Amino acid sequence: MDMTFRISGLDCANCGAKIEREIRKCPEVVEASLDFMQMKLRISTVEPLNEAAFKKNLQELILRIEPSVRIVKDLPKEMDSTTAKDHEMRVRRIVILSGLVLFLLGITAKYLLAYPSVAALLFVGSYLFTGLPVLWTAARNLRARKVLDENILMSIATIGAFAISQGSEAAAVMLFYQIGVYFEQKALQSSRRSISEVLTLRPDYANILVGDALVRVSPDTLSVGDVFIVKPGERIPLDGIVMTGESYLDMAALTGEPVPSWAGPKSVVLSGSINQESVLFIQATAISSESTASRIIEMVSGAGAKKTVRENQITRFATIYTPVVVSMAILLAVIPPLFFGQSFATWIYRALSFLVISCPCALVISVPLGYFGGMGAASRNGILIKGSSYLDALAEVTRIVFDKTGTLTEGVFTVTKIVPQEGYSDEDVLILAALAEKYSNHPIAVSIRNAAESIAVKPDSPAPETYTEIPGRGVRVAMPDKEILVGNLAFMEEAMIEGITAEVSSSAVLYVAVNRKYAGYLIISDRIKASAKDTISFLREKQSCEIAMLTGDRNSAAATVAAELGIKKVYGELLPEGKWEQLEKFMQDPIYLRKGKRGTTLFVGDGMNDAPVLARADVGITIGVNASGAAVESADAVILSSDLTGLNKSILIAKKTVRIVSENIALALIVKGIILVLASLGITHLWSAIFADVGVSLLAILNAIRAGKF
Predict the structure, then answer these.
(1) Is residue 37 classed as helix, strand or coil in its secondary structure?
(2) CATH, domain range 206-290
(3) Is the CA virtual torsion 669, 672, 673, 674 positive or negative?
(4) pTM attached to this predicted model
(5) CA angle at residue 313 from 352 to 193, to 5 degrees?
(6) Spatial distance between the Cα atoms of 413 and 415, rounded to a whole number of angstroms
(7) Mind listing the pLDDT tens digit for each residue in 622-666?
(8) 80 an active-site residue?
(9) Out of 149, 403, 553, 606, which one is annotated catalytic?
(10) Residue 565 contacts by C-beta under 8 Å, 6 or more apart in sequence?
(11) Of 51-65, 154-168, 185-199, 565-579, which gets the smallest average pLDDT?
């Protein structure tokens, strides 16, 4: 049983990790994941389960861990209450400014006017202004027996500073702490706003005609086949096909492409696009929950649940780090005075720095924020990544295996050549083929009918007496006045049609016979995508990836496409299980390594038959708005545009993200380590400890935000 709760009142990433850890210990919980960036708690439980009772027990457990945190079952449309957040930030600004004024007055009184008693009162006033929220939270958490809480450690450190006559240090530490937290919250608020922008992709209403009146209804009430109306400036609520009207659509939020896309009758349009010019009448091809905008929201909202190895390692590290540093602080305060006759005031002061620096928030928050930024950058470029763990895998890609049709090629067949026999014209052969293929849904049959319609010829004839379609061979149609056969060479040979000479072609060749007489043949081609060659070249030369192609198409067609794109490993005429087996061989091959370790294998496809292979690969990516539903469900990432350069972008974004996350881990560990050593030697002040805590957190957050820029 899966449940999702919205979290409110959680300001500490490390506290979020504690909540997640304790919930996992519950016997009825199978898995728990708390996404600090999206403020969501996802829980999988055993069944059957009394949901109301479980929710009550869950809230009680969370309150014991973090008294300020509340949960609600129904997720609102907006992630955060903007008004509440803005009010909180205004109050924090007032507190900081008041504390800063009193602190500066205290500095003036102490060092310029030589009034130490006045200065002491001003420092106390500054401390109370900035520190009361921390002291109040510390007292509440102490009642909940949260001994190693950041607020408690900060309170002990600053009160200890007052006890050893370091009032200015205590006031400065609390002031700088509040300033750091303020900028942290601003940075987090900015990052979270990108999710709220994604949620606006799905409009609240759809326009339908009821009699002569235009009525707004919920998109959830519409079914496949219903017609709705989209006015200029409105978002398209459901995926569909334009029935009447033509307009330009802004699809930047979906594909990252700023150039508007034209849509007219029979054009496929996606929910979330913005109609720019004129009214469109659209027939729905998917219900609301299965439309593109809903799928995007679901993918983005659920992405934080799949955590990376780095995130899990840092979470485990945080459980060890704080107790170890606090223990070191106690030893530092006690051992030198007791065993070596040193001053208690000196070593207590040094130990207080350890307490300030003991919070692991810089690590705990900067790592998921980096991944969150990377996924945000990808989504703004029309790339939907279903979990941060797949960014790690994309960054380590060493093999990329492509499907052919619809992935490297347009997937749209066209009649490129007609060769008639004596007594027949090009038009005769095309009309005969179109008549035979009139009732077939095969892509090649559709291309033949489209070609006939493009020369203003609509094959019209009485219904056939018999219609037989032989998969992989051709069709046989018997009409009152003639019999038409259209198919490959083997089909014609079985029908004993004479006079046919095999045509060697990388494309599909369809032979046409009427009344057992050979009439000619058509060549059907599938164009290579304009971006395919540059993409393959970039991946092979710039990213050092091994490239291969698996396809169910004929070997000759596969070899031609591969030769043009420079792909050396090509496997054609593969059924879905054949693709699976070949991919398994690639993934088990230990030869192709990067930096001494096995890389990951990426499969790129778009069809229903690619779904098993997309699921099996280390990373599966499906490309194009017309990708099958099975492919989208099985893939780990979806590139909405049919442009293959999205693949390059996804890998570059992943590598940048992983690099930034690694930088943040190194920054936090190195700075904290240096300050701990310097503090133990008495070289640094409490101010330095604040920089190592809040300052490093802020730097890590700002660095992580870079991952969202691409």
Answers:
(1) coil
(2) 2.70.150.10
(3) positive
(4) 0.71
(5) 85
(6) 7
(7) 887 666 667 777 888 888 888 899 999 999 999 999 999 899 888
(8) no
(9) 403
(10) 408, 528, 532, 533, 536
(11) 185-199
